[in-house]
What does this fold into?
Amino acid sequence: MATIFSTPAYIDDLDQAGREQWSGALHSWFQDAADRLPTGHRFFNVVDNPLPAGAPTALIPWNAFPRKFTLRWPDDVETRWKTAENVVTRDMNDRQASYWEPAGHGKFRNANLLFRDQDEYCEWRCLRDPSTGRLERIVFTCENPEYWSTLAEHDSKQLLKLYRQLVGPQVAPEELIFQTDTYVRGKNGLVNLRGQYNPLNKWNTTDGLVHLTHPANSLQAEIYLAADATVLRTDGSGAVLTDDARLVCCAAYGSPNRSSDPTIGGKVNELVRNGLRVTIADPVGLYIGELDLAPIEPPGGVTAAECWKVVRGRQADRLILRAEFAPPEGSDFDLEDVLVGGEPLRYGGQLAELITIVIHGVGAATDAAAPRQGCDSKCCRIPESPRLVRIVGIGEACPEIAATLDVEAGPLVLPSLTASIGETLSADDLPRSNKRI
Amino acid sequence: MSDPILAGSGIQANVVPGFRLPYQRIVAVGADLAQAQAIVRHLLPWVTPAARAAAYHERRIEKAKTLRVFGRESFRAVEAGSALRWLNIAVGAEPLAQAGFQGPGRTDRSFGLGLARRSSSLGDPSTLGAPGHKDGWLVGAPSAPVALLLILGSDEAEELARFADSTEKECRRAGGAVLYAETGVRLDNDSEHFGFRDGVSQPGLRGRLSPAEDDLLTPRRLAPDGLSEGPEFSAPGEVLVWPGEFIFGYPRQDAHDFRTSASEGPVDPFMSGGSFLVFRRLRQHVALFRQATRTLAESLRAYSDYAGASDDWLRARLVGRWPSGAPILLYPDDDPGTPPGSLDAFNNFGFREAAAAVTTTTGEPIPGAPGDPMGLVCPLHAHIRKVNPRDTSTNLGPPSQTQKLRLLRRGIPYGTPIAPDAVDEDGVDRGLLFLSYQRSIREQFEKLAQDWMNSDIKPEADGGHDVLVGQAPLSKEGRTAVFRKAAGSTSRRVSTLADWVTPTGGGYFFAPSLASLAAFAGNQTEV
Ligand code: HEM
It folds into this structure.
C-alpha cells in the first residue's frame, strides 16, 4: 500500500526528504487535476485512496516516433527521420516553450528556448563521430522534466553528479541554471527563475540529453489529461462518445495529432465506461515499454539485445526511463554497420519507430454513476496540412480547406496553432505554464 | 462525393476484383531488364484487366444463385467449354528502377529495399541456416532476385497447366529463368490448411467501373444508413474504404473521417492505376499446429476457470473464428457449421461496440453481435482482431485511421491437405501463398506484421501475440496468448515456442496498370 508516491521507476536519486517532496508535488497535481472535475468524478490517487487488492491494471501503449511527422510526410521516411532530430525554438505546430524574458515597459517576449521536436513522451539524441559524422550512439529518455526540477531544487549536488554521469564531466554547475531574468507564469502569477534550474539548458538540448524537453512532454500534463478523460462525453444526441479521436476533440484534453494523448485519454475513458474509477499506477511516470529488437541486425554475431542498455529504470516491468543503443564495449563496428529493417542505422528515428512508450493505468470498481458532459470543443483541419487537425471551441467556425491541395508539400513549420506567440505580452496575458515552479 | 470511376480496362484484375479462381499459379522469373521487358511485351495481350474479371464474377454469381451451386462448382457452371486463362504481372524494384521508373521505390521505401532485406522486420529467423531464414528461401532468396512475378489463373486445372506451360516457355524463350512456379488450389469450404475458412472479410472498395451510378465494384448489400459520419458499410461488417488506399491515382481515406476522401496529391503517372503486391510463401506445419495447440489448451485447462476449454475452443480463439468462419463473438460456445443464410451473417460484428441486427437488400436478416472491448469473448490476440481491430482504438490511432491499414488479400493455399485426423507430420510441403495488394507495403502490410501481429502489447495492450501467424523470435517463452474471463479477473497466459508457420519465400512487387506495363515493356504507349 502506497503511503507516499514512489519516484519514477523507484529510482533512488533522492534522499528521504527529497522523495517526500516529490510525492508531495505529485499529490498536489493529482489534487489540482481532480479539483477541475465535476462532482462525483471517477478520478482518484493511490495515496488518498489505496487500491483494493487485485485492482485491474491497464497498460496504455503508443509509439515513440512522433505521429505528426508520419501524418505530415506519409511516404517520405527520410524527411521524417531527419526532421525529428531537430532542436528547435518552434515545433512543427509553431509551439514554443513557455519561458518569457522582459521586453521593457512591463512587457514580456518569448525567451525562444530550444527543445527537441519529439512530442510522444520519448526523446532521443544521436551522438556522431565529429570527424566522420558516423552515428555512434543513440540515447533515449522518457524522464519527465518535473522530476528533474524537484531534484535540482532539493539537491543541486546530486543534480550535477547525475548530469556529469549522463552527459559528461564537462558540465559546469552554472550552466544548469538560468543566468538571466526568465519568467514563467504559474498558479500564483509570474515567477522569475533566475538562479534556478533551467530544464532547457544546453546539456539537455543542443549538447546533451537528460530528460524530456518538448513543451508537451510534461508529467503534470499527463496527469491532467488522465483526470479530464475520466469524464464521459456525449454527442449532440446524448450518446456517450467512445472513439478516441472524437473524445480528444470533444474534451480538448490533448493534441489530436499525437499518438499519446488520444490513446491515453481513450483508454482512461474506456475504463470509466467499464464501471471503474481510474488513476495512474504507482510509480507514476512515463516509460519506455520496449524496443522491438527483431528488425535490428548488428554485424559479426553481436545481438541487438547486447547493444540495448537500460541506463535508468528497469526493463522487466516496462519501467525503462533511459536507455542507450550502442555497440557493446570493445566492438569494432559503429552503428552505421547495424542494419535496421534492412538498412544502415543512421537516425534515431529508425529505432524510435520500434519503441513503445507506456503508462500504467489502474482501476477500481465503483457503483457511482460517472459524470457526463457535452462537448466543449471540436477539431478543425489545418488548411496548410489537412492531415493535421487543431482544436477550436465548439461554437467556432472551421477555416475553409481548399478542395485540391498538395498535402505533401508545405512549410516545415505550420502557422501558429497557439495564440499570441512572437509578440510581446503583458504579464497577465502570458499563458499559464504546467511547469513545476 | 460519389464513388470514383476506376479504370476497369487499366487496373489489373487481381488487384480488383481479385482473380478468386480455384486454380492459380505463381511464377517467379529471373531476368535482366531487356529480358524482362521482352517477356512483358509478349505476355501483355494476355494480361487480364479488372473489368473483364468483374463482369465474369458478376455472371458467375448470378448463375450460381439460380442454379444453387457454390464454391468451385459455381466456376464450372458459368460458361461451359471456354476455360479461363487469366494473367497478371508484377515487377520487382530493380527492373523498374533500371527502366527509369523511380516512383515506386521512392514512394515506398520498403518496396525499394525488398522483402529479403525487410525480412527481419517481419520477425523472420535471422540465424543463418535456421528454417525460414531468407538465404534458404525457395523463391526470393537474396542470391536469386525475382524480376517478374506472374499470377496465372483458370477455372480448370488442366487449362491452367496448359496455360502455364506456354507462358513459362515464353519466359524462357525471351531469355528469362523460371526460378519458381507453384500452383495453388482453393480448398473445400475455402479453408486454409489449418482448417479455417479464409476470405470471409475484405474491405469494401468505393468505386464504379463505368459512369453509371450503380455500376459499383463492391455491390451494396445494405441500404444507405442515412448517417453523415462513422464507418459506412457495403455489407454487414464490410467497411467502405476509398480506393486510393490500395490503388494509386484515386482518392484516399481521410485520417479523421471515414466518409470523406483525402486528395492523393500529384501521382507519378507511371504509378497511377497500380498497386504494391506482397507475396509471402508461408509453409504451414499442420500436424505441429494440432499438437502444439493441444498442449496450449492443456496448459490453459490447468487453470480451474478454463477447465472446460477444449482444443478446438482454443484454436478458434487463436483465429477469432470457428472453422466454418463463424465469429466466436457471435458463437462463443460452438461452431454452428453453416451460416444461417449467407456468409454475411458471419461478419456483422465490431469489438468495441455491439453491432445492431440488420437486414440486407435481399431481405436476409443478419443477427447483431455484442461488443467485447476487453476481449473476454474474442481475445485481443485473435488473428482477425490483431490484423483488423475494426472499431477499437489502437496505438496507431482510432478506427478512422486504422482503416488505412487494410489489405486486399488474394492468397491461395498450396499443397495437398493433411489427413483430417493426422497428428504426425507427413513431410508434405503445404501452406499459403499469401498475396496482398495495398498502397503502401510499409504502412499497411508491414505495420500489421511488425507493430501488431508480432507484439504482445499492441494494438490492444495486455493481449499477447498473434499466436496463429505472428513471430516472436526473441521471446524466451515464445508467442503468448492471454485469456481473461471478466473485467476484474486475473488474466491467464499460455505460450508456445512451436513455429507452425515458416516463411519459405516471397517478394515485394509493383503491379502497374496495363498502360504502365506497356510503358515498362518499351511500347510506345503514353502513360
Ligand atoms: C499461414 C498464415 C495465415 C493463415 C493460416 C491465416 C488465416 C486466416 C484466417 C482463417 C482468417 C479468417 C478469415 C477472414 O476473416 O477472412 C484470416 C483473416 C485475415 N488475415 Fe490471415 N492468415 C495467415 C497469414 C496472414 C498474414 C501474413 C496477414 C497479414 C499481415 C494476414 C492478414 C489477415 C487479414 C487482414 C484478415 C482479415 C481480418 C478481418 O478483416 O477481419 N493473414 N486469416
